[in-house]
Amino acid sequence: MKRWSFEPGHTAAEFTARHMMVTWVRGAFKDVHGSVDFDLSDCMQTSFEGVIDAAKLWTGESDRDAHLRSADFFDVDNHPRSASAAASPTASATRSSRRWPT
Fold first, then answer.
1. What are the pLDDT tens digits along the chain (102 aa)?
2. Which of 6, 27, 49, 99 could form a disulfide with 85 if both were Cys (CB 3.0 to 4.6 A apart)?
3. How many Cβ atoms sit within 10 Å of the Cβ of residue 48?
């Protein structure tokens, strides 16, 4: 089993969101901590854990960033961090796609 740790200075969780059904807005959370455990001989035992500092959200537009941090969206004052973990992906009908259980 091999463990890779995310380096916060070199890792971002990126996203895209539809804006007014006209265009896409791209952004990132720039402070990501976590790790992936992976065994090449048994990749179905892969696991992931990560924590995002929601206050470090960035879209390139400070007013939009402030709105996204507000209670209308991420409510960073009450939820400053977002954590996620997953283990053991399930195989789909094709080898080329994998999905994590919900």
1. 899 998 888 888 888 888 888 888 899 998 899 999 988 888 888 898 999 999 999 999 999 999 999 999 889 999 999 898 888 777 665 555 555 554
2. 49
3. 16
Alpha helices by DSSP H, 1-102: 62-69
Rounded to whole angstroms, how far apart are CA atoms 97 and 12? 23
Q: How far apart (Å, rounded) are the C-alpha atoms in residues 68 and 62?
A: 10
Domains of the chain and any CATH numbers: 2-88 (2.40.128.110)
Tokens 């992976």 label which residue?
38
100: left (phi over 0), alpha (psi -120 to 50) or beta: beta
